[in-house]
Design goal:
This protein has helices at about 1-20, 30-65, 70-95. The chain has about 100 residues and is mainly alpha-helical. Helix 2 (about 30-65) packs antiparallel against helix 3.
Length: about 100
Amino acid sequence: MLKKYSIPCFLLLLVGFLALNPELALAQAGSFDTKVSSLTNMIVGKILPAVAVFGLVYAAILAATGDESSKRRMVLVIVASIVGILAKFIIPMFQSAM
C-alpha cells in the first residue's frame, strides 16, 4: 500500500518545493537572456570539453582492444570536438544577429 502512493507523493513534494524556489525550477526570477547565456556558457565551457575527452578515451580504448570501427569513431569524435570548440565563436555570432 505504501509503495502505491510513494511516487505520487514524491512528485507532489517536488512540485511544491520547486514552486517555493523559482531559481531551482529555472523560472524567470531574473532576466531570461542572462539565464540562457549562462546555460550556453556552461554547456560550451564545461560539458562539451568533458564529453569530448571521454569520447576520445573511449575511442582509444576501442582501438587498443582491436575494434575495427574505432578509427571511424575516433574521426567522428574529433570532428564533433572541433565543432564543439568552434561553438564558442559560432553561438555569439548567432546571438548578435538576433
